Amino acid sequence: MISFNFAGKDSYKDYGIIISKRPNLPSPKRRVSYIDIPGRDSSLVYDEETYENTTIGVECKIKDGNLIDKIDDIKAWLFSAGESDLIFSFQDDKKYRAQVVNSIDFSQVVKIFSEFIIIFNCRPFKYATYNNVFTIVESGSSIINVGSIKSEPIISVYGEGNIELTVNETKVNLTNIKDKIILNSVIQDSYNDLGENLNNKVKGEFIYLSPGSNRVEWTGNVSKIKILPNWRWL
């Protein structure tokens, strides 16, 4: 039985929704512009190195019970969730960030049977449902990105004073650190456990983890580094 979990609710167990067929999971379109220049062969290619959102249509049906009440419950669940995690049972190790965007039309086929389509607007990538936190205690250690594109990690640096952190070719200088600083590449922000902004202590670009091996090095007084990798796939 194919089902999906959205906003913490299971489509079949919680609402009795039956998925008619396995949905297609499209890859995102890369944003590339082509510019024609007079007198020049071919086109000038401008690659933004970003991707567009995707849409996933799920064909569903429900039967038995009080259809009117059940339909109201389904609508309340899907539309009140906003953007939430979407996980399909046939690939439960990955999730989408999705939101329902269509007005759902419940077409009654017989007295106790209704069909409808749910259209999810999804961010371009699939994300790991669960991420292990990596703890690094030795400079020069490596972490393997198991995803298909660069990830946006959340890095916690435990140390004191001035620290230079290097991941592959990216260097970040941390100034006057006291105990711990969190470098969040997802929201492009730096802070401590109290949520206090520490961007003034950071100089350099936010760190990404490329597919394959990523070498983590540092200089300065560092006891350990913890990395929540946030693996992603196209």
TrEMBL record:
Residues 20-122 form the Siphovirus-type tail component RIFT-related domain. Pfam families: Sipho_tail (PF05709). InterPro entries: Dit_BPSPP_N, Siphovirus-type_tail_N. It comes from Sporanaerobacter acetigenes DSM 13106. This is Putative phage tail component, N-terminal domain-containing protein. It comes from the Bacteria. Gene3D superfamilies: 2.40.30.200.
